[in-house]
Task: structure prediction
Amino acid sequence: MKYSPWSKDAALVVLATLREEEGPVLMALQALQKEFGYVHTESVGLVANFFNKSRADVHGVLTFYHDLRTSPQPENQISVCVAEACQSVGSRQLEKDVKARFGEEVHDGYCFGNCALGPAAMVNGKIIGRATLEKIEKARQ
Result:
């Protein structure tokens, strides 16, 4: 997915679409991330001013939700499920192996709804059942 480059003016255009929403902080942060691929650090102040909230309130929402990012996404996004069902079939070792191979691209995931085919992984939004290092590497390409 191609994202727009971040700019204050472009961010304000995104925020303007949410002016009438109730509880707009989370929606604003999600919309900014959808547009730019992440929530730029200057967006905290923009959202706070735009919706008459404190910077602390906006920062709290930004840091509470695991899916919100404050830096550009790596080219490939890999998550290995570490919920109980996948752990029982080796996901923690798979996660260690995948992190050793791919580093910062790898994040913990919590239940992709593919428990019967664990361990599960997700590469760039695609779920992989009975995941192995080889299947994950192939999905990255």
User: Anything to note?
Assistant: The chain has a mean pLDDT of 92. The longest strand covers residues 78-81.
